[in-house]
Write a structure and sequence with these properties.
The chain has 125 residues and is of the alpha+beta class. The chain has 5 helices and 3 strands; from the N terminus they run αβαββααα.
Length: 125
């Protein structure tokens, strides 16, 4: 997770715990990038997702650019079968609502939780 100086250590731990829990419960790889982006947010998010290499097909990446008011969710091919566009839209709406209220950490944690809930446990577990 790239966080720069956006979070306090406690907030960073909270976000990291939500990612760890989501990965443990779903066997998908969750990652969050928070910060300014150079260029179109969607393109940057897709590049960051692709940079996950072999983990990309099972990955869910959240890009949050608070200064530019951009939020992107990118799912890999395998993750897309478990996390629908509707689930991503609902998580994005919930996150955006929290961000508008000034709760960056809570929005991210809620979004990760919602996406993990949508994915459910790994099939054949």
């Amino acid at each position: 997770m790239a966080v720069g100086e956006t979070f306090t250590p406690s907030q960073q731990r909270h976000v990291e715990q939500s990612l760890t829990t989501a990965m443990r419960e779903t066997s998908l790889h969750f990652s969050v990038f928070v910060g300014d982006v150079d260029g179109e947010a969607r393109e940057v998010a897709e590049r960051l997702h692709a940079a996950l290499g072999p983990r990309a097909p099972e990955a869910v990446l959240l890009l949050v650019a608070p200064g530019a008011r951009h939020l992107e969710v990118v799912t890999g091919q395998a993750a897309r079968h478990r996390v629908s566009d509707r689930a991503c839209a609902l998580a994005t709406l919930s996150m955006t609502t929290a961000f508008v209220g000034g709760d960056l950490t809570g929005g991210i944690v809620t979004g990760v939780r919602m996406l993990a809930d949508a994915a459910g446990p790994e099939p054949n577990r």
